[in-house]
Design a protein that fits this description.
About 8% of the residues have low confidence. This protein is α/β, with parallel strands linked by helices. It starts with a helix and ends with a helix.
Length: 317
C-alpha cells in the first residue's frame, strides 16, 4: 500500500512526465497544447462503486480547441507481478470507457519487482476471438538505470533506484536520482517530498550512507544549501505573514503560532535529512531535540552541518 500511494502521488504531481516515460509510444502525439488532468476520484467512486480502484490513476488528455478526441491513460502500479490480474484491469478499463464515453483508452501497468505476469487477455471460442485486450507494461527492474542518468524527465530520475543496475553502481544511481531532483524540481516543498521517495526505494544502509557522503560531497553540500534556503525562506514567510496578521486584532497570536509550527516541522525534517546524509542514522535523543527546537535554533544547526565533523558538534549549543 505504501508503494501504491507513493506512485499515485508521483503520477498526480507529474502526469505529463509519467505518460512520457511509461507510455512513450502513445505520448508522442501529446503536444504542449494538450491539457492533462486526473479524473476526479469522487466521480469514479460515485459511478463505479465497489469497482472503483482508488489507487489507479486515470489521466484524461484533452485538446481545448477540439482538434483531437480526448484520450484516457489508465496507469496502474503493481509492486508484485504475481498479484496482477489482467482480468481486473480489463474490467476497470471497460468501466472507465463506458463511464467517460470514449473508446480511446490506454492501459498502462508499472511493475516494481521482477516476475511473470499475463500480458494479454483473449476471450473467444474455437472459431473467433471476441475480445483481445492488451496493455503497455513498464517493468522498472528490466530498464537499465544508466540509460536515464541524464534524463530531463523527473519521473525517470526519481525511479532510478527501481531500475536495473549492478550492486556496485547503487551509490552512483542514488547520486543521479538526487541530482535530478535538485536540478529538475525548483519547488522546495516537492523537493523535500521526493527526497523521501528516493530514500524509500534506494534503501541505503548505514555503511552505504557513509560511503555516499565520502564519494559525493558535492551532492551532500547541495542538500545542505537547499536546507538552509528552505529554512530561511520559511523564516522570512513567517515574518511577513506575522506582520500582516498582526494587523488583524484578536487573531494574530493563534495564526502566527500555527504558521510558525508548520514552518518548524518542515525545517526539522530537512535538518534531520541533512544529519542522516552526513552522519548516518540519527539517535532518537537527537531527533527529539531537533523536533522540539525553535526556528532560529534549527537554522543555526543547519549552518553548522557543513563544517562539523561529528553529530554532537552540530547540536552542541
Amino acid at each position: 500500500m505504501m508503494h501504491d500511494q507513493n506512485f499515485k502521488n508521483l503520477i498526480l504531481d507529474y502526469p505529463r512526465q509519467a505518460i512520457a516515460l511509461f507510455a512513450a509510444s502513445e505520448a508522442q502525439a501529446i503536444d504542449t497544447d494538450a491539457r492533462v488532468t486526473p479524473v476526479r476520484q469522487e466521480q469514479l467512486q460515485e459511478r463505479l462503486g465497489e469497482r472503483f480502484r482508488e489507487l489507479d490513476i486515470p489521466l484524461l488528455v484533452e485538446w481545448p480547441d477540439g482538434r483531437r478526441e480526448a484520450i484516457l491513460f489508465v496507469i496502474e502500479e503493481e509492486t508484485e507481478p504475481a498479484r496482477f490480474s489482467v482480468h481486473r484491469l480489463a474490467h476497470y478499463c471497460l468501466d472507465l470507457s463506458d463511464l467517460l464515453g470514449t473508446d480511446r483508452v490506454v492501459p498502462v501497468v508499472v511493475f516494481l519487482h521482477r516476475g511473470d505476469f499475463a500480458q494479454r487477455l483473449s476471450l473467444g471460442g474455437d472459431a473467433t476471438t471476441y475480445l483481445d485486450f492488451r496493455f503497455l507494461a513498464y517493468a522498472l527492474p528490466g530498464i537499465p538505470a544508466r540509460e536515464h542518468f541524464d534524463s530531463a524527465n523527473l519521473v525517470a530520475r526519481l525511479n532510478l533506484p527501481n531500475m536495473a543496475y549492478a550492486p556496485e553502481d547503487k551509490l552512483e544511481v542514488y547520486a543521479h536520482a538526487m541530482r535530478g531532483l535538485s536540478t529538475l524540481e525548483p519547488d522546495p516543498e516537492r523537493r523535500l517530498k521526493y527526497l523521501d521517495f528516493i530514500d524509500i526505494y534506494a534503501a541505503l544502509d548505514e555503511n552505504e550512507r557513509i560511503v555516499y557522503r565520502q564519494r559525493y560531497p558535492e551532492e551532500v553540500a547541495e542538500m545542505t544549501r537547499f536546507a538552509e534556503r528552505f529554512m530561511e525562506k520559511g523564516r522570512e514567510e513567517g515574518r511577513v505573514e506575522g506582520r500582516v496578521e498582526g494587523r488583524v486584532e484578536g487573531r494574530v497570536e493563534g495564526r502566527v503560532e500555527g504558521r510558525e509550527e508548520g514552518i518548524g516541522q518542515g525545517e526539522a525534517r530537512v535538518l534531520l535529512r541533512q544529519l542522516t546524509l552526513k552522519f548516518g542514522p540519527v539517535p532518537e535523543s537527537v531527533v527529539s531535540r531537533v523536533e522540539s527546537a525553535d526556528a532560529e535554533t534549527l537554522l543555526r544547526w543547519s549552518e553548522q552541518v557543513l563544517s562539523a565533523d561529528r553529530l554532537e558538534d552540530v547540536v552542541a549549543g
